[in-house]
Design goal:
Layout lengths: L1 H31 L4 H30 L4 H106 L4 H44 L4
């Protein structure tokens, strides 16, 4: 009888192992379940069904063990049955813990959503009030930039006029002090360097204005269109 029962015993053992692995995987799915509760309910229903099959296979294996002719084989199978029962109890404990952790996570997620919804409503209420203030601040900043640019342009015009006057003075002095050609050439080099510096100043002013305008546009974008 032991030889005849060998095949079903082996098949029963394999099915027990398979259901055990499937239950472990399903418990992990429950632990990782992000919600909602309906999804958790479906996972629990599947786990219950797997436990039902596992319990039935363990009972079958226990019945086969009791029907063994040899006492040694009987005791070995009964020991396996006991081990499978302990493993099933361990899986049930892990299942309960996974459900508890998942429910806590779902509750926390729902609370976070409620808090985010309240924050969103408050932000919408304050947006209209802050828009007028932001527009006023930006307008004031632009006016300040305009005044600064006007002063820079005026200073540049004065510098150009000063350079022009200096050039005329040098040209007039050139006729009177031909013997000082070396000094005059040095003066011309200084004037050329000054002109280049003027161009550099204008370029720096332009770059500063472009950077400021880009910063203003970026701030406007972040305040007016934060979702972009």
């Amino acid at each position: 009888m032991a030889a005849a029962a060998c095949v079903p015993v082996r098949v029963c053992h394999q099915e027990i192992v398979r259901f055990d692995l499937e239950i472990k995987a399903a418990v992990q799915d429950i632990r990782d379940c992000p919600g909602p509760l309906s999804a958790l309910t479906e996972l629990n229903a599947a786990v219950k069904e797997k436990f039902r099959h596992l319990r039935g296979r363990i009972q079958e294996l226990e019945q086969m063990a009791r029907e063994q002719d040899k006492e040694s084989e009987k005791q070995a199978l009964l020991q396996e049955v006991e081990n499978h029962k302990k493993q099933m109890l361990s899986n049930q404990a892990a299942w309960r813990k996974a459900n508890l952790a998942c429910k806590i996570a779902i509750d926390n997620a729902e609370k976070d959503q409620l808090l985010q919804g309240r924050d969103s409503l408050r932000q919408r209420k304050t947006t209209k009030e802050s828009l007028a203030e932001s527009a006023s601040n930006i307008t004031e900043s632009l006016m300040g930039i305009s005044r600064m640019m006007s002063q820079q342009v005026q200073q540049s015009e004065e510098t150009v006029q000063t350079l022009a006057n200096s050039s005329r003075t040098i040209l007039e002095a050139n006729e009177e002090f031909k013997s000082m050609s070396g000094t005059i050439q040095l003066g011309r080099k200084l004037i050329t360097k000054y002109n280049r510096r003027e161009l550099t100043d204008k370029l720096l002013i332009f770059l500063a204005l472009a950077l400021f305008l880009a910063t203003v546009l970026y701030i406007l974008k972040k305040r007016l269109f934060p979702f972009l």
